[in-house]
Design a protein that fits this description.
The complex is a heterodimer of chains A (270) and B (229).
Chain A (H helix, E strand, L loop, with lengths): L15 H8 L20 E6 L2 E6 L3 E3 L2 E4 L5 E5 L2 E7 L1 H22 L5 H14 L1 H5 L4 E9 L4 E7 L5 E4 L2 E4 L3 H11 L6 H18 L15 E6 L2 E4 L2 H20 L8
Antiparallel strand pairs in A: 1-2, 1-10, 2-11, 3-4, 5-6, 6-7, 7-8, 8-9, 11-12
Chain B lengths: L6 H18 L3 E6 L2 E7 L8 E5 L2 E7 L1 H21 L7 H18 L6 E7 L8 E5 L5 E4 L2 E4 L3 H11 L6 H13 L10 E7 L7 E4 L1 H14 L1
Antiparallel strand pairs in B: 1-2, 1-8, 2-9, 3-4, 4-5, 5-6, 6-7, 9-10
Helix pairs in contact in B: 4-5, 5-6
Classes of the chains: A alpha+beta (270), B alpha+beta (229).
Chain lengths: 270, 229
Amino acid sequence: MALPLFPLPDDPGPDFASLLARTNTAAVPTMRETELTIRHSTTVVALRFADGVVMAGDRRATEGHSIAHRAMEKVFPADRHSAVAIAGAAGPAVEMVRLFQVQLEHYEKVEGVALSLEGKANQLAQMVRAHLPYAMQGLAVVPLFCGYDLARGIGRIFTYDVTGGHYEEADFQATGSGGRDARTTIKLGFRDGLTRDEGIELAVEALYEAADEDAATGGPDLVRGIYPLVAVVDETGYARAEEAEVAERFNALIERRRAERAVGGRGEHQ
Amino acid sequence: MPFYVAPEQVMKDRAEYAQKGIARGRSLVAAVYDGGVLIVAENPSRSLHKISEIYDRIAFAGVGKYNEYDQLRVAGVRHADTKGFTYSREDVDARSLANLYAQFLGNVFTHEMKPLEVEILVAELGADGRPDQLYHIAYEGTITDEERFAVLGGDAETINERVAAAYEDGWELAGALRAAVGALAGAERTLGPSDLEAAVLARQNGRRTFRRLGDAELADLLGTEAAAS
């Protein structure tokens, strides 16, 4: 290996993906034709609270009708002040996140300053767009991106479609096969200026309802002690909520649902 | 028809040229302290850095001509990120990077018209009981590794003596900083936070151990000396 120095017209600048393309083509994430197992369904949610954003995702990965993995993580720190969650084909999605993480750090180190939140969202959009040919073959990757905008002092959420189109959401968003149910739950419980705890609680409820309705979304796994992953991004940066805290909230939620049933508040078959 | 010039003379001229270029700039001190590695440079600029982050546990510092060592810095970041992405983050180490730098500088020194007027330092924070490493690479590709401290720049010898005299094993950040700044300044001058650029690779910083010390923090660390003495 020699020092990666380039003549000026060929210099990749702070772009890690084009650096990879110039140095080590084998490492450029491409879909191998043999990778035909498609792990799709998921629920990931993001919602704004007073001081930042809460992001959460279930842990189930499926292959057709069987469960491929019970403890998969779908929410990742993108850098210090942003997080990315994925829905879609697991292999390319995780690879995209890995490249995205390195890209943000690479840019920050080469340029000496971190990208703006808007810039990070655009970078991710370009990666999703580059993935479109694979999406056309059924291996779609649909990320959800959120972060704390240090310049504006607020949390912001961006959603994507398979073509790389990205749209900023005002307050909350959920994607994946259980996204609709999760979104409805958040819509009913959302108000401006939620506290951190209220935000986490709402995300937990949304994931619970999504898992209740969607076969491909995993609920809390009480037997194995696997709970959905919840992360908070605020001024101090990305922090994953303690598993004990998440477990406690799910257990409390289950207790409440049981009590509601016991007094006959809910129909037999709901 | 070109005149014959003895190879000894060519090398001597090149070395002299590089040394002169390096001596024009200000010096830099790196030292190991109880929580990691400290690097301090005399640098009045807030944006043209001499000290930078390469990877999770690796820092880069250069003295001499800015455009030349900055090009080396960017190449270092590229090398480290590519290696970490292709293999794993723990496979990125300072030794292999320092070797690449040494090879490159050595090549330029022997084959190009003009040698690079830089001296660089690659510092690595030790993990899993391995000691911290400071690799000092000179303009002609000579590489030395230090386990306690390293001095780069024009007046390296004098500064080196001053740091050696003040050095204590396992000192704290404030002590190391004061000694390093004292050594850079010498007896006649005093250097304040606005004349300095400082950064640490600190064990407590999590995955990315590199952190710059801001003016306020520098003043605070240097100021405790005034109160104590």
